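[Structure tokenization] protein backbone as discrete codes

[Encoding] learned vocabulary of local backbone shapes

[Begin record] amino acids and matching fold tokens:

___
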Amino acid sequence: MKFRVSNIYLAISIIASIIFSTLIWEKISLPFNNLGIVGEYSRNEFNPVNDILRYLIFILCPILIFFSQIFFNKDKFKYFILNLNDNSLIELQKNYSILFLFALFLLLLILEFLSVQFQLHNLDLMHEGQQLGSAFKNSQDGSLWSGSYITTGLFYETLSSNIIWNLFEAETIGLKRIMDIFLIFVLKILLIFLSLKITNFLKLQIFYKNIFFVLITMIFLSVIDYNIASVDHLVSREIPIILSLIFIAIFFQSKKVSRIILFIFGFLSIATLLWGIDRGLVVNLIIISFLLFFLIRKNYRELIFLSSSILFWWFVFYLILGDEFTYFISNTISIYSYISYIHGIIHPTPFGDHPDSYRATKTLLSIILVSILTINLFFIDNEKYHSGFKFFLVFLCFVCIFSYVYVVGRSDGPHIKHIFGYPIIFLSICSLYFLLFFLNKRVKIFNLKFKNYFLVFISVIFFYSFYEIDYKRIKNYPSRFIEYINLNDTSFINNQEINFINKVETLLENKNCVQLFSHDAALHYLLKKKSCTKYYLIWSVGSIPDQKNFINELYNTEIIISGGVKFNWLARLEERLFLVNTYIKENFEKIETIEDWTLLKRKIN
């Protein structure tokens, strides 16, 4: 009874802390630091650090209350430390049936990939233009950060499209979208490989392990689909993080390759920042957590080796990139410093009436639950959870916590949904393992003749029920592929955009470049004219230093295109880039307006 009462008190304390954190949410308010950047934060005189503090306080209050039951209980704390320093290695069972299931899922994924219906929806001039504009400039002059102000990441904006363009020796929108689809395919493969690695941790009979693998794989694959215009629980930009989780699982399963894994993490510390600035930040926070993990456990050799690997790879990339490395550092610092002020949306109050409040509250509560379950793992006997499995779940918990950094910078529905995939993955692993461990102890599965055939049958039925496999499309894939990648750009844009492109192309025939004062970054690609400045994506510009640099780079600009798409949630460009707008007014004059765009030319002094 004493045990039950103490748990009731603990539950009440946790709930009370969540209520308290909700009540003080809006009272957590630091003074506004006016950087001269026009956006939602400046309009509301809101310090972006507020959202970070509110998030941390909201999740840490219940987590610390739960952890206090350990810290102030000597016996529990000793058991916690004992588990934390457990170095036992997992003994991998030979399980050929699970490898067969893995191969089966891989085959089904390939069939699904070949069945994909290529999408012809209208080109998103800003978001897809973000990938096309920088990639086109790189194809013209070979520049990286020196030629483009990279907002998301070098691979996403510049290299991904260029890689496939160079591979097929053509520059088309169809190829760019093929690359998007291929990256989703890669993520799906990594997810089933992650589920295989997780399954290896489990203390179950082989049959139950196979059941776990089949079910968890289906759950993992449900967080993403091939509709590149949809909002999923995970996106292909998460590839570095999923890859990191796979390496973490391998690290805790095999001592033989531990040094190799640490060497790879040194590489990932810099490579993931090139992939994506936000995802790279999360991976580096994971690596820092690894360093602290080694420090706490007094694994000084691993600590020194990982630190050395990081320094080694940063130095290698410094040598490879040359002058571009300096631009990379300054570009990345600029994004981290200003992007929240530029496009930030104030995080909705938990349990509030904001349209995105429910989604945010659900995600925050799931992160709290994940954290509490993770701490509780270290009070569970290792008979149920292997120590390596516990450590893996700790780092998966860190991924859940760190990934919310995407949200506190821009707290709208799609960004909140994007990171909910990690709590889904964590909670699915724990709940499914709990159920199967219970059955494993009570229902013994002996050599049933057709048990593995049954699992294969279930896997195929499940896959066919939720994922589309079209044998006609598979058969015609080569012809469909060739036709799609060779489609004219006009197949992806509307009549208004076609009319504008046709009329402007002749006016720009002898121009080397064109500058946009518009969010329609895809115009650089569609007009086959690179940006005159590095600021091809105007949406991410707003700070005073960037505006001044923008003006300095306009010295060789003869033509500016303004107008185009507008967003009701974003201040007008003339208001946001007030310094640039003043310079343009003083130095450029209108040529003509075509559809929604206006052409400006430099005044002759």
Observations:
- The chain has a mean pLDDT of 90.
- DSSP finds 27 helices and five strands in the chain.
- The beta strands are 513-517, 530-531, 559-563, 588-594, 597-602.
- Residues 204 and 254 are 19 Å apart (CA to CA).
